[in-house]
Amino acid sequence: MQLIRNYLRPFLLLIFNLFVLPAFAQQGNYIQLLGQQNKWVDSVYNKLSRRQKIAQLFFVRAHTNKGVKYEDSVANVIDKEQLGGVVFFQGGPVRQAELINRYQHIAKVPLLIAMDGEWGIGMRLDSTLSYPYQMTLGAIQDNTLIYKMGQQVAYDFKRLGMQMNFGPDMDVNNNPDNPVINYRSFGDNKYNVAKKGIAYFKGMQDAGLLTTAKHFPGHGDTNVDSHFELPLLPFTRQRLDSLEEYPFREAIAAGINGVMIAHMSIPALDSTKNRPSTLSKKIVTGVLKDSLGFKGLVVSDAMEMKAVTKYFPNGEAELQAFLAGNDIIELSMDSKKAILKIRKAVRKGLISNADFEAKVKKVLAAKYWAGLNNRKDVITTNLLSDLNREPARQLIQQLSDAAVTMIKGTTESIHLNPLEKTAIVSIGVESYTTFQTELARWSPNCHLFLVNKSTPVADLNRILEMLKQYNQVYVSIHDTRTRPASKLDYSNGVKQFIAALPANNKVVVSVFANAYTIAGLPGIEKSAGLLVCYQMSDELQRAAVKVITGQLKPTGKLPVSVNVYFPTGTGL
Question: Is the pLDDT of residue 505 over 80?
Protein backbone atom coordinates (compact mmCIF):
# COMPACT_ATOMS: atom_id res chain seq x y z
CA MET A 1 0.00 0.00 0.00
CA GLN A 2 2.84 2.40 0.88
CA LEU A 3 4.47 1.67 -2.50
CA ILE A 4 1.23 2.54 -4.29
CA ARG A 5 0.94 5.76 -2.29
CA ASN A 6 4.50 6.79 -3.22
CA TYR A 7 3.85 5.94 -6.87
CA LEU A 8 0.69 8.05 -6.98
CA ARG A 9 2.10 11.15 -5.24
CA PRO A 10 3.51 12.89 -8.35
CA PHE A 11 0.21 12.33 -10.17
CA LEU A 12 -1.83 13.69 -7.26
CA LEU A 13 0.33 16.83 -7.19
CA LEU A 14 -0.09 17.24 -10.96
CA ILE A 15 -3.87 16.84 -10.70
CA PHE A 16 -3.94 19.41 -7.87
CA ASN A 17 -1.99 21.94 -9.92
CA LEU A 18 -4.06 21.40 -13.05
CA PHE A 19 -7.56 21.42 -11.59
CA VAL A 20 -7.50 23.26 -8.26
CA LEU A 21 -5.21 26.25 -8.73
CA PRO A 22 -6.67 27.56 -12.03
CA ALA A 23 -10.02 27.93 -10.29
CA PHE A 24 -8.50 30.93 -8.52
CA ALA A 25 -6.56 32.36 -11.47
CA GLN A 26 -7.39 35.67 -13.10
CA GLN A 27 -7.48 36.54 -16.76
CA GLY A 28 -4.94 39.08 -17.96
CA ASN A 29 -2.24 41.10 -16.27
CA TYR A 30 -2.95 43.62 -13.50
CA ILE A 31 -0.51 46.22 -14.88
CA GLN A 32 -2.13 45.96 -18.34
CA LEU A 33 -5.56 46.28 -16.73
CA LEU A 34 -4.61 49.72 -15.41
CA GLY A 35 -4.40 51.07 -18.96
CA GLN A 36 -7.94 49.97 -19.83
CA GLN A 37 -11.29 51.50 -18.97
CA ASN A 38 -13.18 49.39 -16.47
CA LYS A 39 -16.92 49.77 -15.91
CA TRP A 40 -16.88 48.30 -12.41
CA VAL A 41 -13.98 50.51 -11.30
CA ASP A 42 -15.59 53.63 -12.80
CA SER A 43 -18.97 52.81 -11.27
CA VAL A 44 -17.56 52.36 -7.75
CA TYR A 45 -15.34 55.43 -8.04
CA ASN A 46 -18.21 57.67 -9.12
CA LYS A 47 -20.37 56.61 -6.16
CA LEU A 48 -17.74 57.50 -3.54
CA SER A 49 -17.35 60.88 -1.86
CA ARG A 50 -13.87 62.43 -1.81
CA ARG A 51 -13.39 61.27 1.76
CA GLN A 52 -14.44 57.73 0.88
CA LYS A 53 -12.07 57.71 -2.09
CA ILE A 54 -9.18 58.64 0.19
CA ALA A 55 -10.23 55.93 2.66
CA GLN A 56 -9.77 53.32 -0.10
CA LEU A 57 -6.03 53.91 0.18
CA PHE A 58 -5.87 52.94 3.88
CA PHE A 59 -5.34 49.40 5.22
CA VAL A 60 -5.97 48.59 8.89
CA ARG A 61 -4.26 45.95 11.09
CA ALA A 62 -6.25 42.90 12.21
CA HIS A 63 -5.59 39.87 14.44
CA THR A 64 -7.58 36.83 15.51
CA ASN A 65 -5.55 36.11 18.65
CA LYS A 66 -6.35 39.29 20.61
CA GLY A 67 -9.91 38.62 21.67
CA VAL A 68 -13.37 39.90 20.82
CA LYS A 69 -12.79 43.49 21.97
CA TYR A 70 -9.91 43.92 19.54
CA GLU A 71 -11.90 42.36 16.69
CA ASP A 72 -14.82 44.66 17.46
CA SER A 73 -12.58 47.73 17.50
CA VAL A 74 -11.30 46.89 14.00
CA ALA A 75 -14.87 46.32 12.83
CA ASN A 76 -15.79 49.75 14.21
CA VAL A 77 -12.94 51.42 12.27
CA ILE A 78 -13.95 49.65 9.05
CA ASP A 79 -17.59 50.63 9.54
CA LYS A 80 -16.95 54.28 10.36
CA GLU A 81 -14.03 54.96 8.03
CA GLN A 82 -14.95 52.54 5.19
CA LEU A 83 -11.26 51.78 4.60
CA GLY A 84 -9.90 50.05 1.51
CA GLY A 85 -8.32 47.00 3.07
CA VAL A 86 -7.21 44.90 6.01
CA VAL A 87 -3.79 43.40 6.83
CA PHE A 88 -4.04 40.26 8.95
CA PHE A 89 -1.39 39.21 11.44
CA GLN A 90 -1.25 36.42 14.05
CA GLY A 91 -4.18 34.11 14.75
CA GLY A 92 -5.91 31.00 13.48
CA PRO A 93 -7.25 30.18 10.01
CA VAL A 94 -10.87 29.35 10.86
CA ARG A 95 -11.21 32.39 13.13
CA GLN A 96 -9.66 34.55 10.41
CA ALA A 97 -11.99 33.22 7.70
CA GLU A 98 -15.00 33.98 9.87
CA LEU A 99 -13.68 37.45 10.68
CA ILE A 100 -12.98 38.19 7.00
CA ASN A 101 -16.61 37.35 6.22
CA ARG A 102 -17.75 39.65 9.00
CA TYR A 103 -15.55 42.55 7.93
CA GLN A 104 -16.52 42.18 4.27
CA HIS A 105 -20.21 42.44 5.19
CA ILE A 106 -19.52 45.73 6.97
CA ALA A 107 -17.69 47.28 4.01
CA LYS A 108 -19.65 49.08 1.31
CA VAL A 109 -16.79 48.48 -1.17
CA PRO A 110 -15.21 44.99 -0.84
CA LEU A 111 -12.06 45.04 1.26
CA LEU A 112 -8.71 44.03 -0.18
CA ILE A 113 -7.37 41.49 2.34
CA ALA A 114 -3.60 41.23 2.68
CA MET A 115 -1.00 39.46 4.80
CA ASP A 116 2.78 39.26 5.15
CA GLY A 117 3.23 35.68 3.99
CA GLU A 118 6.85 35.47 2.92
CA TRP A 119 6.94 31.76 3.74
CA GLY A 120 3.21 31.26 3.36
CA ILE A 121 0.30 31.74 5.74
CA GLY A 122 2.21 29.74 8.35
CA MET A 123 4.24 32.91 8.92
CA ARG A 124 1.17 34.27 10.74
CA LEU A 125 -1.38 31.51 11.38
CA ASP A 126 -1.36 28.45 13.60
CA SER A 127 -2.49 25.03 12.32
CA THR A 128 -1.16 25.81 8.81
CA LEU A 129 1.89 24.95 6.72
CA SER A 130 5.08 27.01 6.55
CA TYR A 131 7.30 26.87 3.49
CA PRO A 132 11.07 27.33 3.84
CA TYR A 133 12.52 30.75 4.64
CA GLN A 134 13.81 32.73 1.69
CA MET A 135 17.46 32.18 2.68
CA THR A 136 16.77 28.44 2.46
CA LEU A 137 15.14 28.91 -0.94
CA GLY A 138 18.18 30.92 -2.02
CA ALA A 139 20.24 27.71 -1.93
CA ILE A 140 17.96 25.87 -4.38
CA GLN A 141 19.20 25.55 -7.96
CA ASP A 142 15.84 24.64 -9.55
CA ASN A 143 13.70 27.78 -9.60
CA THR A 144 10.68 25.89 -10.94
CA LEU A 145 10.23 24.54 -7.41
CA ILE A 146 9.95 28.10 -6.13
CA TYR A 147 7.41 28.92 -8.84
CA LYS A 148 5.35 25.92 -7.66
CA MET A 149 5.64 27.17 -4.10
CA GLY A 150 4.21 30.50 -5.25
CA GLN A 151 1.22 28.66 -6.70
CA GLN A 152 0.60 26.77 -3.48
CA VAL A 153 0.94 29.92 -1.36
CA ALA A 154 -1.58 31.65 -3.64
CA TYR A 155 -4.02 28.78 -3.17
CA ASP A 156 -3.83 29.17 0.62
CA PHE A 157 -4.36 32.94 0.44
CA LYS A 158 -7.33 32.63 -1.91
CA ARG A 159 -8.84 29.76 0.08
CA LEU A 160 -8.82 32.03 3.13
CA GLY A 161 -10.42 34.95 1.30
CA MET A 162 -7.20 36.97 0.92
CA GLN A 163 -6.13 38.67 -2.30
CA MET A 164 -2.67 40.13 -1.64
CA ASN A 165 0.66 38.92 -0.27
CA PHE A 166 3.18 41.47 0.98
CA GLY A 167 6.00 39.40 -0.51
CA PRO A 168 8.43 38.34 -1.77
CA ASP A 169 11.29 40.04 0.05
CA MET A 170 13.70 41.13 -2.71
CA ASP A 171 16.32 42.76 -0.51
CA VAL A 172 19.94 41.79 -1.19
CA ASN A 173 21.11 40.81 2.30
CA ASN A 174 24.84 41.56 2.20
CA ASN A 175 25.11 42.46 5.90
CA PRO A 176 25.28 39.39 8.19
CA ASP A 177 24.33 41.60 11.16
CA ASN A 178 21.07 42.80 9.57
CA PRO A 179 18.54 42.45 12.41
CA VAL A 180 15.35 42.68 10.35
CA ILE A 181 15.95 41.13 6.88
CA ASN A 182 18.68 38.47 7.08
CA TYR A 183 17.08 35.00 6.65
CA ARG A 184 14.05 36.68 4.98
CA SER A 185 16.25 37.42 1.95
CA PHE A 186 17.21 35.01 -0.83
CA GLY A 187 20.85 35.94 -0.17
CA ASP A 188 23.65 38.35 -0.98
CA ASN A 189 23.89 37.74 -4.74
CA LYS A 190 21.70 40.24 -6.58
CA TYR A 191 21.21 37.96 -9.58
CA ASN A 192 20.08 35.04 -7.43
CA VAL A 193 17.76 37.30 -5.43
CA ALA A 194 16.17 38.60 -8.64
CA LYS A 195 15.68 35.17 -10.20
CA LYS A 196 14.27 33.60 -7.03
CA GLY A 197 11.99 36.55 -6.34
CA ILE A 198 10.63 36.54 -9.88
CA ALA A 199 9.97 32.78 -9.80
CA TYR A 200 8.10 33.18 -6.49
CA PHE A 201 5.92 36.14 -7.46
CA LYS A 202 5.15 34.73 -10.91
CA GLY A 203 3.86 31.56 -9.27
CA MET A 204 1.59 33.63 -7.03
CA GLN A 205 0.40 36.03 -9.72
CA ASP A 206 -0.29 33.27 -12.24
CA ALA A 207 -2.54 31.71 -9.61
CA GLY A 208 -4.45 34.98 -9.12
CA LEU A 209 -2.75 36.63 -6.14
CA LEU A 210 -1.55 40.24 -5.95
CA THR A 211 2.09 40.43 -4.87
CA THR A 212 4.46 43.04 -3.47
CA ALA A 213 8.25 43.14 -3.82
CA LYS A 214 9.85 44.70 -0.75
CA HIS A 215 11.56 46.77 0.69
CA PHE A 216 12.46 49.29 -2.06
CA PRO A 217 15.09 50.50 -2.72
CA GLY A 218 16.73 47.77 -0.62
CA HIS A 219 16.88 47.03 3.13
CA GLY A 220 19.59 44.35 3.00
CA ASP A 221 22.66 46.33 4.08
CA THR A 222 21.39 47.90 7.28
CA ASN A 223 22.13 47.13 10.94
CA VAL A 224 19.10 48.95 12.35
CA ASP A 225 15.53 47.62 12.56
CA SER A 226 13.14 50.21 11.12
CA HIS A 227 10.45 48.99 13.52
CA PHE A 228 12.40 50.88 16.21
CA GLU A 229 14.60 53.50 14.51
CA LEU A 230 15.27 55.09 11.13
CA PRO A 231 18.06 53.13 9.37
CA LEU A 232 20.68 54.96 7.31
CA LEU A 233 21.66 53.77 3.84
CA PRO A 234 24.87 55.78 3.29
CA PHE A 235 25.77 54.53 -0.19
CA THR A 236 26.34 56.37 -3.46
CA ARG A 237 23.68 56.60 -6.16
CA GLN A 238 25.84 54.39 -8.36
CA ARG A 239 26.03 51.66 -5.70
CA LEU A 240 22.25 51.82 -5.09
CA ASP A 241 21.54 51.63 -8.84
CA SER A 242 23.85 48.69 -9.45
CA LEU A 243 23.16 46.61 -6.32
CA GLU A 244 20.17 47.40 -4.10
CA GLU A 245 17.79 48.38 -6.89
CA TYR A 246 18.77 45.58 -9.28
CA PRO A 247 16.24 42.92 -8.10
CA PHE A 248 13.43 45.50 -8.09
CA ARG A 249 14.30 46.66 -11.59
CA GLU A 250 14.20 43.05 -12.78
CA ALA A 251 10.91 42.42 -10.94
CA ILE A 252 9.31 45.47 -12.56
CA ALA A 253 10.42 44.26 -16.00
CA ALA A 254 8.92 40.84 -15.19
CA GLY A 255 5.52 42.35 -14.28
CA ILE A 256 5.37 42.55 -10.48
CA ASN A 257 1.98 43.86 -9.25
CA GLY A 258 3.24 45.92 -6.34
CA VAL A 259 6.32 47.36 -4.63
CA MET A 260 6.60 48.17 -0.93
CA ILE A 261 8.73 51.16 0.11
CA ALA A 262 11.16 50.84 3.02
CA HIS A 263 11.48 53.33 5.88
CA MET A 264 15.12 54.41 5.45
CA SER A 265 17.18 57.58 5.32
CA ILE A 266 19.00 57.59 1.95
CA PRO A 267 20.98 60.84 1.55
CA ALA A 268 22.15 59.96 -2.00
CA LEU A 269 18.50 59.99 -3.13
CA ASP A 270 16.99 62.52 -0.71
CA SER A 271 19.18 64.52 1.68
CA THR A 272 16.26 65.89 3.74
CA LYS A 273 17.10 65.20 7.38
CA ASN A 274 15.11 62.37 9.05
CA ARG A 275 12.89 61.89 6.01
CA PRO A 276 12.14 58.17 5.50
CA SER A 277 12.18 56.95 1.90
CA THR A 278 8.47 56.15 2.28
CA LEU A 279 7.74 59.86 2.58
CA SER A 280 10.12 61.03 -0.13
CA LYS A 281 8.67 62.12 -3.46
CA LYS A 282 12.19 62.07 -4.91
CA ILE A 283 12.41 58.34 -4.15
CA VAL A 284 8.83 57.07 -4.55
CA THR A 285 7.90 59.11 -7.62
CA GLY A 286 11.28 60.23 -8.91
CA VAL A 287 13.15 56.91 -8.71
CA LEU A 288 10.54 54.13 -8.57
CA LYS A 289 7.87 55.56 -10.86
CA ASP A 290 9.76 57.90 -13.19
CA SER A 291 13.24 56.35 -13.48
CA LEU A 292 12.28 52.67 -13.17
CA GLY A 293 8.91 53.09 -14.87
CA PHE A 294 6.87 51.20 -12.28
CA LYS A 295 3.13 51.52 -12.92
CA GLY A 296 1.71 49.12 -10.33
CA LEU A 297 0.65 49.50 -6.71
CA VAL A 298 3.07 51.39 -4.48
CA VAL A 299 2.61 50.25 -0.89
CA SER A 300 4.06 51.96 2.18
CA ASP A 301 5.70 49.85 4.85
CA ALA A 302 3.74 49.93 8.12
CA MET A 303 3.14 53.54 9.13
CA GLU A 304 3.06 52.57 12.80
CA MET A 305 6.81 51.82 12.78
CA LYS A 306 9.08 54.04 14.89
CA ALA A 307 11.22 54.98 11.86
CA VAL A 308 8.22 57.07 10.72
CA THR A 309 6.22 58.00 13.81
CA LYS A 310 9.27 59.37 15.66
CA TYR A 311 9.65 62.24 13.20
CA PHE A 312 6.18 62.55 11.59
CA PRO A 313 3.40 62.09 14.19
CA ASN A 314 -0.33 62.84 14.17
CA GLY A 315 -1.18 61.89 10.60
CA GLU A 316 1.62 63.92 9.02
CA ALA A 317 3.45 60.73 7.93
CA GLU A 318 0.38 59.48 6.06
CA LEU A 319 -0.05 62.83 4.32
CA GLN A 320 3.61 62.88 3.27
CA ALA A 321 3.40 59.25 2.07
CA PHE A 322 0.33 60.12 -0.01
CA LEU A 323 2.02 63.15 -1.59
CA ALA A 324 5.22 61.16 -2.17
CA GLY A 325 3.35 58.74 -4.44
CA ASN A 326 2.24 55.79 -2.31
CA ASP A 327 -1.05 54.21 -3.37
CA ILE A 328 -1.67 52.05 -0.29
CA ILE A 329 -1.01 53.48 3.16
CA GLU A 330 -0.55 50.55 5.48
CA LEU A 331 -1.37 50.47 9.21
CA SER A 332 -1.96 54.13 10.05
CA MET A 333 -1.81 55.03 13.74
CA ASP A 334 -4.89 57.24 13.28
CA SER A 335 -6.63 56.77 9.92
CA LYS A 336 -9.41 59.25 10.77
CA LYS A 337 -6.98 62.10 11.40
CA ALA A 338 -4.78 61.13 8.44
CA ILE A 339 -7.73 61.01 6.02
CA LEU A 340 -8.79 64.50 7.09
CA LYS A 341 -5.27 65.84 6.46
CA ILE A 342 -5.14 64.27 3.01
CA ARG A 343 -8.63 65.58 2.23
CA LYS A 344 -7.44 69.12 2.94
CA ALA A 345 -4.37 68.60 0.76
CA VAL A 346 -6.52 67.40 -2.16
CA ARG A 347 -8.86 70.34 -1.73
CA LYS A 348 -5.87 72.73 -1.80
CA GLY A 349 -4.67 71.19 -5.04
CA LEU A 350 -1.44 69.68 -3.64
CA ILE A 351 -2.13 66.77 -5.96
CA SER A 352 -3.77 67.05 -9.39
CA ASN A 353 -7.27 65.65 -9.89
CA ALA A 354 -5.93 63.27 -12.54
CA ASP A 355 -3.24 61.87 -10.23
CA PHE A 356 -5.71 61.52 -7.36
CA GLU A 357 -8.21 59.68 -9.55
CA ALA A 358 -5.49 57.36 -10.91
CA LYS A 359 -4.30 56.53 -7.40
CA VAL A 360 -7.75 55.53 -6.14
CA LYS A 361 -8.62 53.63 -9.32
CA LYS A 362 -5.38 51.65 -8.99
CA VAL A 363 -6.68 50.21 -5.72
CA LEU A 364 -10.14 49.59 -7.14
CA ALA A 365 -8.61 47.91 -10.22
CA ALA A 366 -6.64 45.61 -7.91
CA LYS A 367 -9.91 44.62 -6.26
CA TYR A 368 -11.46 43.94 -9.64
CA TRP A 369 -8.46 41.90 -10.84
CA ALA A 370 -8.60 39.83 -7.64
CA GLY A 371 -12.28 39.02 -8.25
CA LEU A 372 -13.78 41.18 -5.50
CA ASN A 373 -16.41 42.50 -7.91
CA ASN A 374 -17.99 39.05 -7.45
CA ARG A 375 -16.98 38.45 -3.83
CA LYS A 376 -18.28 35.39 -1.99
CA ASP A 377 -18.00 34.43 1.66
CA VAL A 378 -15.15 32.14 2.68
CA ILE A 379 -16.44 28.60 3.23
CA THR A 380 -15.04 27.22 6.48
CA THR A 381 -16.04 23.60 5.83
CA ASN A 382 -12.88 21.50 5.33
CA LEU A 383 -10.77 24.65 5.63
CA LEU A 384 -8.05 23.11 7.81
CA SER A 385 -7.72 20.00 5.65
CA ASP A 386 -7.55 22.16 2.50
CA LEU A 387 -4.77 24.27 4.03
CA ASN A 388 -2.84 21.16 5.15
CA ARG A 389 -3.19 19.19 1.94
CA GLU A 390 -0.75 16.45 0.98
CA PRO A 391 0.57 18.01 -2.29
CA ALA A 392 1.70 21.06 -0.33
CA ARG A 393 3.49 18.90 2.26
CA GLN A 394 5.24 17.02 -0.53
CA LEU A 395 6.41 20.27 -2.10
CA ILE A 396 7.85 21.48 1.23
CA GLN A 397 9.89 18.28 1.42
CA GLN A 398 11.00 18.72 -2.22
CA LEU A 399 12.13 22.27 -1.48
CA SER A 400 13.98 21.09 1.64
CA ASP A 401 15.69 18.26 -0.26
CA ALA A 402 16.83 20.73 -2.93
CA ALA A 403 18.21 23.23 -0.38
CA VAL A 404 20.65 21.00 1.54
CA THR A 405 24.16 22.29 0.87
CA MET A 406 27.40 20.36 1.37
CA ILE A 407 30.19 22.87 1.98
CA LYS A 408 32.78 20.38 3.28
CA GLY A 409 33.40 16.76 2.40
CA THR A 410 32.07 14.41 -0.25
CA THR A 411 29.09 12.08 -0.44
CA GLU A 412 31.51 9.24 0.32
CA SER A 413 33.22 10.92 3.29
CA ILE A 414 29.94 11.66 5.08
CA HIS A 415 28.22 8.37 4.25
CA LEU A 416 26.89 6.46 7.26
CA ASN A 417 28.34 2.97 7.73
CA PRO A 418 25.57 1.04 9.52
CA LEU A 419 28.07 -1.51 10.87
CA GLU A 420 30.19 1.05 12.73
CA LYS A 421 29.68 2.18 16.32
CA THR A 422 27.90 5.51 15.89
CA ALA A 423 27.10 8.53 18.08
CA ILE A 424 24.30 10.90 17.04
CA VAL A 425 24.52 14.21 18.92
CA SER A 426 21.95 16.99 18.76
CA ILE A 427 22.98 20.39 20.14
CA GLY A 428 20.81 23.32 21.23
CA VAL A 429 17.71 21.27 22.07
CA GLU A 430 16.02 19.75 25.11
CA SER A 431 14.67 16.55 23.55
CA TYR A 432 15.56 14.07 20.82
CA THR A 433 15.30 15.53 17.32
CA THR A 434 13.85 14.31 14.04
CA PHE A 435 17.45 14.14 12.77
CA GLN A 436 18.36 11.69 15.52
CA THR A 437 15.31 9.46 15.27
CA GLU A 438 15.49 9.30 11.46
CA LEU A 439 19.24 8.61 11.33
CA ALA A 440 18.99 6.02 14.12
CA ARG A 441 16.80 3.87 11.87
CA TRP A 442 19.80 3.39 9.59
CA SER A 443 22.29 2.65 12.38
CA PRO A 444 21.51 -0.33 14.62
CA ASN A 445 24.69 0.25 16.62
CA CYS A 446 24.14 3.88 17.65
CA HIS A 447 23.69 5.95 20.79
CA LEU A 448 21.95 9.32 21.04
CA PHE A 449 23.31 12.32 22.97
CA LEU A 450 21.67 15.65 23.83
CA VAL A 451 23.44 18.94 24.53
CA ASN A 452 21.26 21.93 25.34
CA LYS A 453 22.21 25.58 24.89
CA SER A 454 23.78 25.82 28.36
CA THR A 455 24.85 22.29 29.35
CA PRO A 456 27.44 22.56 32.20
CA VAL A 457 31.09 22.29 31.17
CA ALA A 458 31.67 19.22 33.35
CA ASP A 459 28.89 17.37 31.50
CA LEU A 460 30.26 18.53 28.15
CA ASN A 461 33.73 17.22 28.98
CA ARG A 462 32.24 13.89 30.01
CA ILE A 463 30.39 13.61 26.68
CA LEU A 464 33.58 14.48 24.76
CA GLU A 465 35.39 11.61 26.47
CA MET A 466 32.55 9.23 25.64
CA LEU A 467 32.52 10.30 21.97
CA LYS A 468 36.14 9.14 21.57
CA GLN A 469 34.80 5.57 21.76
CA TYR A 470 32.75 5.96 18.57
CA ASN A 471 33.99 5.39 15.03
CA GLN A 472 31.62 7.93 13.51
CA VAL A 473 29.92 10.91 15.10
CA TYR A 474 26.99 12.71 13.49
CA VAL A 475 26.27 16.11 14.99
CA SER A 476 23.25 18.34 14.41
CA ILE A 477 23.27 22.00 15.46
CA HIS A 478 19.84 23.57 16.02
CA ASP A 479 18.43 27.04 16.51
CA THR A 480 15.05 26.77 18.22
CA ARG A 481 14.29 30.50 18.17
CA THR A 482 11.38 31.84 16.12
CA ARG A 483 13.76 34.22 14.33
CA PRO A 484 17.00 32.39 13.44
CA ALA A 485 19.64 35.08 14.00
CA SER A 486 23.20 35.27 12.67
CA LYS A 487 24.70 34.19 15.99
CA LEU A 488 23.64 31.20 18.07
CA ASP A 489 22.48 31.82 21.64
CA TYR A 490 24.67 29.00 22.98
CA SER A 491 26.89 29.32 26.05
CA ASN A 492 30.63 29.67 25.44
CA GLY A 493 31.06 26.21 26.90
CA VAL A 494 28.78 24.66 24.29
CA LYS A 495 30.58 26.54 21.47
CA GLN A 496 33.91 25.25 22.79
CA PHE A 497 32.43 21.76 22.93
CA ILE A 498 31.64 21.98 19.19
CA ALA A 499 35.21 23.13 18.46
CA ALA A 500 36.61 20.25 20.56
CA LEU A 501 34.71 17.41 18.86
CA PRO A 502 37.19 14.52 18.41
CA ALA A 503 39.14 15.17 15.22
CA ASN A 504 40.60 11.68 15.00
CA ASN A 505 37.16 10.20 14.32
CA LYS A 506 34.76 10.86 11.44
CA VAL A 507 32.68 13.84 12.56
CA VAL A 508 29.89 15.03 10.24
CA VAL A 509 28.02 18.21 11.19
CA SER A 510 24.59 19.31 9.95
CA VAL A 511 23.58 22.90 10.77
CA PHE A 512 19.84 23.50 11.15
CA ALA A 513 20.29 27.22 11.76
CA ASN A 514 21.00 30.46 9.92
CA ALA A 515 23.97 29.90 7.59
CA TYR A 516 25.73 32.93 9.08
CA THR A 517 26.00 31.10 12.45
CA ILE A 518 28.79 28.91 11.05
CA ALA A 519 31.15 31.92 11.21
CA GLY A 520 30.72 31.95 15.00
CA LEU A 521 31.70 28.30 15.44
CA PRO A 522 35.49 28.17 14.94
CA GLY A 523 36.79 24.67 14.35
CA ILE A 524 33.65 23.45 12.62
CA GLU A 525 35.46 23.62 9.28
CA LYS A 526 37.73 20.76 10.44
CA SER A 527 34.88 18.25 10.37
CA ALA A 528 34.90 15.44 7.80
CA GLY A 529 31.66 16.77 6.40
CA LEU A 530 29.55 19.88 6.85
CA LEU A 531 25.96 20.23 5.69
CA VAL A 532 24.13 23.58 5.78
CA CYS A 533 20.38 23.11 6.26
CA TYR A 534 19.49 26.75 7.09
CA GLN A 535 16.61 26.30 9.56
CA MET A 536 15.16 23.90 12.09
CA SER A 537 12.35 22.01 10.36
CA ASP A 538 11.44 18.35 10.26
CA GLU A 539 11.65 18.39 6.46
CA LEU A 540 15.24 19.68 6.40
CA GLN A 541 16.27 17.19 9.08
CA ARG A 542 14.84 14.36 6.97
CA ALA A 543 16.62 15.79 3.92
CA ALA A 544 19.98 15.78 5.74
CA VAL A 545 19.48 12.14 6.73
CA LYS A 546 18.74 11.31 3.09
CA VAL A 547 22.08 12.85 2.11
CA ILE A 548 24.01 11.04 4.85
CA THR A 549 22.45 7.69 3.95
CA GLY A 550 23.04 8.10 0.22
CA GLN A 551 19.41 8.52 -0.80
CA LEU A 552 19.89 12.12 -1.96
CA LYS A 553 22.67 14.08 -3.63
CA PRO A 554 23.06 17.54 -2.08
CA THR A 555 22.58 20.15 -4.81
CA GLY A 556 22.25 23.37 -2.80
CA LYS A 557 24.69 26.30 -3.03
CA LEU A 558 25.39 28.81 -0.26
CA PRO A 559 23.24 31.91 -0.94
CA VAL A 560 25.36 34.07 1.40
CA SER A 561 29.03 34.41 2.20
CA VAL A 562 29.72 32.90 5.63
CA ASN A 563 33.49 33.56 5.91
CA VAL A 564 36.72 33.10 3.92
CA TYR A 565 36.30 29.32 4.03
CA PHE A 566 32.74 29.34 2.72
CA PRO A 567 31.89 32.16 0.27
CA THR A 568 28.63 32.58 -1.66
CA GLY A 569 28.10 29.75 -4.13
CA THR A 570 29.95 27.08 -2.12
CA GLY A 571 28.42 23.65 -2.55
CA LEU A 572 29.09 20.21 -3.94
Answer: no
